[in-house]
Amino acid sequence: MFVSASIPGFSLGIDLCDGDASCVIQIQPSKSTKLTCTATDASPSMELKWFNGSSEITEGIENKSPVMTGTSRIISATLYVAPECTGSLICQAVDHNAKDVSGRFALVQLQLPGSAIKEASTGWMVTAIISLVTCIVLIAVLAFIIVKSRKTKRKDKSKPEEGEKLMEVNDKDKEINVKQGKMEELTTKVNDRDNEIKVKQGKIDELTAETQIKDNELQVKVRELTKLQEEVIKKDNEIKNNVEEIYQLKAAIQSKDNETGNKDEELSRLKAVIKSKDEDLSRFKTHEQESLDKLKKVKSDEEQIKINFRKLENSERSFREKKMDDLENIYVTVIPKGGSLVGIKRDGNSFTLKHSSTMYRFPHIFSIGAAAREIYEKVNCYVENAIDGGDSLVIAFGTSRSNPQFTTMYGDTEWKNAILPLTYKKIFERANQIKTRKYSVNLRSRFAHVLEDENNKGTSKVPESTFVDGCKDPMTMPSTESKDENSIERLFIEHRESITKGGSKHNCYVQYFIDTEEDHKTMTTGTITLVTLFEARVAKATFEKEGLKSPLEQFLADIAYKANSRCLLLAHLNEDKDDVKEVLKVAKTVC
Question: Where are the domains of the chain?
Answer without folding.
Answer: 2-113, 117-234, 327-590
